[in-house]
Structure formats: C-alpha cells, structure tokens
Amino acid sequence: MTDHVDALVPFAPDRPKTRLSDTLSPAERRAFAGAMLSDVLAALAGAGFAPRLLTTEATGRDVSETVDDRPLTEAVNAARDVHGPAPESPLAVVMADLALATPRALARLRGRDDAGDRIAGVTIAPGRAGGTNALVVRHPEFRVDYHGASYLDHLRVARDIGASVREVDSRRLATDIDERADLAEVLISGEGAARDWLVDAGFELDTGDGRVSIARTG
Ligand SMILES: Nc1nc2c(ncn2[C@@H]2O[C@H](COP(=O)(O)OP(=O)(O)OP(=O)(O)O)[C@@H](O)[C@H]2O)c(=O)[nH]1
Ligand SMILES: C[C@H](OP(=O)(O)O)C(=O)O
C-alpha cells in the first residue's frame, strides 16, 4: 500500500458549528472549530497520512491547503478530480470536527479488509447520525455526496459503480462534534486541543441528576 496517503480535510472557518450556537458565541465557535482542526491534523500526521486542508478561506496554518469556496460536495469532488490516478493514488477525506480522533483510530482507515490482501474501493467510517466522517477513496469512479444520511448515499454510489466497501466501526471516528451533547464526549474522551479549549472556557461534566451533560462555570 502507498506509504503516504493524502488526506483532504474540509474546513469552513467562516461560520463554523452553527448547531452549537446555543452554547458558544460566534467567536468561540471559530476558536473551538480551530482547536478540533488542530487535533485532526495532528492525529492524521501521527497515523502516517499527508494532511491537506480544503478550506473555504485561507487559514494561515503551516499545512498544505487548497482554498475553494464552493459547497462541500462540489469542492471535494473537484479535489478528487485533480488528484492522482486511482487506485494508485488513494485519497482520504476526513472531517475537521472529529475531536476524538487519534492516530490509532485513523490508522484503521489504512488497513486492509477482511479478505486479507484485497483493498477496498471505498473505506468508510460512518458518523453516528448517518453522516460520513471519514473516507478513503480508491475506486476511480467514486464521487462523494455529503449531507443528509450521506453514509447510505455513499453505500449506494459504491454499489452502483461496483466498488467494494470496507466499513470502519470506530467510536472515535463516529463521533463528530455537532451539538451541545457532543461536547460531553470531548470532555470524556478528548485528548487534545479541543478538550483543553473547553476546559479553559469553563466547561465541565455535570452528572448531578444521574445523567451526563455539560455545565459552564467560567
Ligand atoms: N471546504 C468546505 N468544508 C466544509 C463546508 N461545509 C462544512 N465543511 C466542513 O465539513 C465538516 C463537516 O461539517 P458539518 O458538521 O456538516 O458543518 P459545520 O459547518 O461544521 O457545522 P454546522 O454549521 O453546525 O452544520 C467540517 O470539517 C466543516 O468544517 C464547505 O462548504 N466547504
Ligand atoms: C458533511 C455531513 O456532516 P454532518 O452534517 O453529518 O455532520 C456528512 O457527513 O454528510
């Protein structure tokens, strides 16, 4: 298998994480999204991927980046089109809000399927609510279709083009951070900048009524 698989990390820094508007101000959402991105980039590098930002505006980060302000699906497919030929040049697509991602969890995307030496045309790590949190695309005809239950849509696309699919069932990769309740997952299992950011901002776990939620004391 190729040593360094390129990993595209889509990122929209202008108005990120609107579903956290009840909990974080716009400036806080930008800072928190940036912290999650830092964790994902570090974990990808630790897993031997070559990360590349696909961002709607320049970030100034010390990482290779493509600026493309088209909608997510269009931008990812355009990046796939100019990437090297498949299947020799696989392309991973890993979302920037996987705050629990670790090198070990991401390395599972690079594994082989159960058949042993056969490498899947598409490897998918689904999100908990039917999204597609991470992908590795090898089949030359596979194109993404994000939003909604994109996991099911991607299975359908793979079937239609005859691409084999390998699924990575990983709690860390399935947990994208979208809503207030997801912040508890970061406090419980996060190991990086996103967890530190929440703690510094005064968030803590609240188990007062026997259920786990978050509270802000700062
Ligand atoms: N390049 C690019 N990345 C995007 C775009 N929309 C979302 N993303 C990124 O795709 C990943 C998944 O995003 P979502 O959780 O669906 O959207 P979000 O904007 O982060 O959050 P919400 O506003 O709550 O939907 C995150 O890494 C986003 O930064 C886009 O239009 N272009
Ligand atoms: C991009 C989208 O993310 P979600 O809206 O599920 O967080 C998806 O995974 O299709």
Explain the layout of strands and helices.
Layout (H helix, E strand, L loop, with lengths): L4 E7 L14 H21 L2 E7 L9 E3 L4 H11 L8 E4 L8 H5 L14 E5 L5 E6 L12 H12 L3 E3 L3 H4 L5 H10 L3 H8 L2 E4 L6 E4 L2
The chain binds guanosine-5'-triphosphate (GTP) and L-phospholactate.
Short description:
The protein is α/β, with parallel strands linked by helices. It is 33% helix and 20% strand.
**Beta-strand percentage?**
15-25%
Structural class from helices and strands? alpha/beta
CATH architecture, by name, is Alpha-Beta Complex
What is the terminal separation in angstroms?
A: 48 Å
Poorly predicted runs are none
Helix percentage: 25-40%
Number of DSSP helical runs:
7
CATH class: Alpha Beta
From the alpha-carbon coordinates, what is the Rg to the nearest angstrom?
Answer: 17 Å
Kindly state the mean pLDDT as a whole number?
94
Q: In sequence order, what are the helices and strands, one letter per element?
A: EHEEHEHEEHEHHHEE
The number of domains is: 1
Hetero groups in this structure are:
guanosine-5'-triphosphate, L-phospholactate
Strand order of the largest sheet: 3-2-1-4-6-5-7
What does the overall shape look like? globular
Q: CATH fold name, please?
A: Spore Coat Polysaccharide Biosynthesis Protein SpsA, Chain A
Oligomer: single chain
Question: Quick one: biggest sheet?
Answer: 7 strands, mixed
Number of beta-strand segments = 9
Which homologous superfamily in CATH is the superfamily? Answer: Spore Coat Polysaccharide Biosynthesis Protein SpsA, Chain A
Enzyme class: transferase
EC number: 2.7.7.68
Subunit structure: Homodimer.
GO biological process, one term: F420-0 metabolic process
